[in-house]
Amino acid sequence: MNMRGVIVLALLVVLMNDAKAGGIYGSLQLDSRAVAEGTQIALNCSGQIVTSAVQKYGRYRVQVNVEGPCSFSVSGYSGAVTHLISYREATRYNLIITRHGSGYSLKRR
What we know:
The protein is mainly β. It is 15% helix and 48% strand. The longest helix has 16 residues, at 3-18.
């Protein structure tokens, strides 16, 4: 491979690594119990919305391609929204849904 090819390959590797932030993962609980498997979650990072479903034992994982502030919400729990930060590395957020009057709130455990 000539020098130009090596430089182009190196640039592609750097650009591909910059294009993807780390994932957001963790657990989601309500009343000290895991939320139901299949519960829908959404992550909005700078207008990029990614949805996923909660897995067994309340575990979730969402892959985002943007670093920075994000909004995390849980379907079926009105008001269960919190703000997180997506970093270059995968970041764990264990979250708890709590009841507040007729709605819910979401906070980090």
